Structure formats: C-alpha cells, structure tokens
Amino acid sequence: MRRTLFRFLYLLYILNLLYFTSSCHKPTQPHLTIGSKFFTEQVIVAELLAQHIESRTNIHVDRKTNLGGTLLVHKALLSGDLDLYVEYTGTALTAVLNESPNSDNSTTIYNRVKQQYSQRFNLDLTEPLGFENTFAMVIRGEDAQRLHLRNMSDLAPIAPKWRAGVGYEFLERPDGFPGWSTHYALHFAAPPNVMDLGLLYRALLDHQVDIVAGNSTDGLIDSLHLVALEDDRHYFPPYDAVPIVRRAALEKFPQLRQALADLSGKLTAAEMRRLNSQVDADQRDVATVVRAFRGTKNL
Known about the structure:
- The protein is α/β, with parallel strands linked by helices.
- The chain has helices at 2-24, 40-56, 70-79, 89-96, 106-121, 141-147, 168-172, 177-183, 200-205, 220-223, 247-252, 255-261, 269-280, 286-296, and strands spanning 31-35, 60-64, 84-88, 123-125, 135-140, 164-166, 193-194, 211-215, 226-228, 241-246.
- Helix 2 (40-56) links the parallel strand 1 (31-35) and strand 2.
C-alpha cells in the first residue's frame, strides 16, 4: 500500500514538473499596450486603435484606459508601460513641451510637436485621425439665448457675476484658465471651482457654476442643450488628435505603422461627437460602439 502511494505521488510530481517546464517555454504572443486619459473620448479612440490593430496584424493589444491626465499618460509612455496613445497636438505643445499657445496653423503645430517628440523622447507622431478636439467654454442654452452670448468676448461684462468650473489640468496648463481669462480680460466672481471632468456639466445644469471648460467634441453638449462659445480672439491652438507611439514598438512590429496609417483622416469631429454621445448619453458599450463605427468605414 505504501509503495503504491509512493509511486502515485512520484508520478504526480513528474507530471507537475513536465507541465511547469512546458509552460515556461511556451512562446508568448506578441503584444503591445494602448492607454488613454481619463475621459470618454480617449477610451473610444484607444479602443478604435486596439480593434483595428488586432484586425490588421497578429499583434495582441492590452488596453489600459482611464489612466489619468496628460502628464501621467505621457510618463507611462516614456517608461514603457504604454506603447501607444492618442494625444492632441495643442496639448502636446503646451502641457508636455511647455511652449506657449500661439496662432500657428495645424500643420505648423503638428510638425513642431513631431520634431520635438522625436528628438527629446524617441516618440513618433503618426498621421492625424482627422478631427480636432479643442477646449470648449460651455454655458447653459437658456443663458446664451437670454443674454445673447455667442463669443467668448461677450463674457466680459457679465463675468464678475459668474462662477467658472474647470478640470484640474485646465487650471494649470499654459493654454488653460489663467491665460484664457487674461486673453479675454475676464474677471469672475471667484476663483474657478476645480472638479473631475465628469462632474462639470452636472454642476453647470445644477447652477453650481455658470460656465465650464469642456471639450468641443463632447457628446453631452447637444443632448443637454448647452452652448459652446466661439473662440473669436483665437486663444486656443489647434488640437488635432494624433496617435503617438514609442519608436521601439514600431521597430518591434513593422506592420504597426501601416495599420495606424489606415486610420488617417477616418474620423471627423461630427463623427467623434456622435460616438461620445452614444457612450455618454445613450450608455452604450464602448467596444460595441467602436465595432459598429469600423463597419461603416470598412475598416
């Protein structure tokens, strides 16, 4: 009986050893990691890139979405925790490169960021996706109609009675609140209320604030009957959405560059706004929304 038990345990040990050895030598599937900042649009475009890359190549994509703000995601890219994410050219210029916003056109800003990212960070900008997401200073629709507000410059007479709401990043950025309010000579009733991006529109509707710094492609602007004011004095630089990828990832996966090139110019601002609305207003699943959109583009 004891000998039988010994043989059984010995056989079990051998089987476990063989399994462990084979697992250690099992080839790992090539993969890269795509990340995003902490808002809906970023999650959508990250999923768009991930689905397209997986459909066009043999690369498995890990998703790390909702990571945080610009500098955190940029740091993750430099450390190798991420291989790729979508940035906005004006954000790269001001928040990462720390250069002042200017009135240069989209091509000039793109080329400047591309050059600096290559030289300083060994990162490549691929082709823009086709849409711009600029900052939108958003007010309630009834206020826009009652006070005849259309442009940001229209705010000067009423700003001393109004309260502003902004995200953490917009308060500190070179192209953010201090520069914007100075450019338009705005003096609000109090320092801006700083809150999570997801709370801005609710605070506006609840009259906790009177103007918020949103994004021009936010799907909730139309669905909540809000109004984005025109940047009539051209404070904000262009913010074209563009994938930024580690050069090491492009060298490891030669097919990656062409897969990203397929997406060049495929997404307009109106389409991005609709996708955001489907997720935020209609509460649809991001992956499902992206899959349906890819079908309409034959991607």
